[in-house]
Amino acid sequence: MASRFQLGAATGQQLLDPWAQGISVMREVCSRWSQLDITQIGSLIAIAGTVPTAWRLLQRVSQEAYGCVRRFFLASVTIPGDDPLNRNVVQWILANRPRHCRSFTGRTDMGRAAHGDRAAALKKSQHAIQYLPHWSTRWLWYGGCLFVVTRNRADFSRGALSDPSNDGIGNEALTVSCFGWSAEPVKAFIHACREYAERQTQFFVIIYARDRYGLAWKPKARKPLRRLDTVHFDEGVKRELVSDIRNYLDPRTQKRYQSRSMPYRRGYLFYGPPGTGKSSLSVAIAGEFGLDLYEVKIPSVATDAELEQMFQEVPPRCIVLLEDIDAVWKDWSAGEKKNQTNGQDGQNNNNNNNNNSAPNCTLSGLLNVLDGVGSQEGRILIMTTNRPKQLDSALVRPGRVDMKVFLGNISQKSARDMFLRMFSPDLGCSADLDMEEVEKLADRFAAEIPEDTFTPSLLQGFFQLHLESPLNAVSSIGAWVKKELEKSSDKDFELIHDRKRS
């Protein structure tokens, strides 16, 4: 029994030894600190205070060393923050980022709502959160070369996030560098980034607009390509329009123009009642020919000089869109005529109102940028209007407008085509029906549509209520047509447009 007790005591003593040793060490440390005088303690505090200074000195030395390496051993290219190449490089880096990234920038993505729940999509709280890697320097391998991409973080914190139109990609100056005496590898890398970005956007149309300060063109929206067969108007006119644009964009056409000292420009006027697809046709043409679309809002332009600057910065191969051109100077012209009728007194009395309605730039300023001495060449100009007769003859003369395209109310044939597009068996909404049965329903549907009476947008609004079933669409179209015809004949309602062709 005695031996067992001694063995248990020895085991307990072994378990208590680590605690006892720890307490002993702490006592020894406290004893030694208590023996230090005030001079020794001050020295230790002074040494500790030099650590931040030493760290800053080490950072400064590393920065100077990096500067020397960059100056003598690196070839580099700097890309401004507002250049499209900047966005291309950042997109490539984000697509090839390492998976272990731990630093992100979080933003509310206003362009993406909750999918699947239409009611939830309307709530502000349902907007998705966009997380983008937050970085200032990125090392990467490409084409057998080591590259370093540095990002100006000061630009990022100062203005990138404060711009509501910014999606967090680009907008900060970038410097792309590689080891060596030649910048050719850097140029090849930037070219590859641009090709990558173009492949990503080949199924989209990029719409540009002036930024909120009116200083530069910025991407406003990215819309999926829209097929030309989704814009319903006369098929013969559509083929003629597409053929004319294709011929204009042919490089041989440009050489013919230049060899004959002819300005290389092309202008189109799309006119017709509201809702007939003038803007949609512009987007569809941009997608058909792989062109970017630049949107010019005349009322928001401050001066003729600013309008000229906008057109000077437009690239040569693109579409410039001027929507509702008839409404730009309409109010101002009406007020001017009224003042001339009422005399000088009426002009003085209404001076403030007229100044508020007058546009900032003039018609002569617009005419000058369209085909003046310093106007740009190589672009396609598209103007849209609901009232072509109200346009100044100088604006639509040949040379400024080379082709006029009328988009009117929908025909029965176009209504049938729209039905087939909405309820194609490939979309899955009519799984029980084959194509032959859908075509028969389309014939019944088109027979209910009066010829040249409804706009395509109005008919599309009907389809939005019956996207789940083509049978319901056919059974409901008769009542819907009757209701819409009663609306148009009711004198209590104001007609939006004249049904006669201009």
From TrEMBL:
Task: Tell me the membrane topology, using the record's own terms.
Answer: Single-pass membrane protein
Q: Would the keyword Hydrolase turn up in this protein's UniProt record?
A: yes
The record's listing under Pfam families reads: AAA (PF00004), AAA_lid_BCS1 (PF25426), BCS1_N (PF08740)
Q: Where is the BCS1 N-terminal domain?
A: 46-231
Per the database record, which ranges form the AAA+ ATPase domain? Answer: 264-411
Q: Which reaction does it catalyse?
A: ATP + H2O = ADP + phosphate + H(+)
- List the residue ranges of the region (Disordered): 336-358
Q: Which InterPro entries match?
A: AAA+_ATPase (IPR003593), AAA_lid_BCS1 (IPR057495), ATPase_AAA_core (IPR003959), ATPase_AAA_CS (IPR003960), BCS1_N (IPR014851), Mitochondrial_chaperone_BCS1 (IPR050747), P-loop_NTPase (IPR027417)
Location comes to: Mitochondrion inner membrane
PROSITE patterns from the entry?
AAA
- Kindly state which keywords UniProt assigns to this record, in alphabetical order: ATP-binding, Hydrolase, Membrane, Mitochondrion, Mitochondrion inner membrane, Nucleotide-binding, Transmembrane, Transmembrane helix
The UniProt GO MF terms for this protein read:
ATP binding; ATP hydrolysis activity
Question: Mind telling me which GO cellular component terms the entry cites?
Answer: mitochondrial inner membrane
PANTHER family (alphabetical): BCS1 AAA-TYPE ATPASE
**Which family does this protein fall into?**
Belongs to the AAA ATPase family. BCS1 subfamily.
Protein name in UniProt: P-loop containing nucleoside triphosphate hydrolase protein
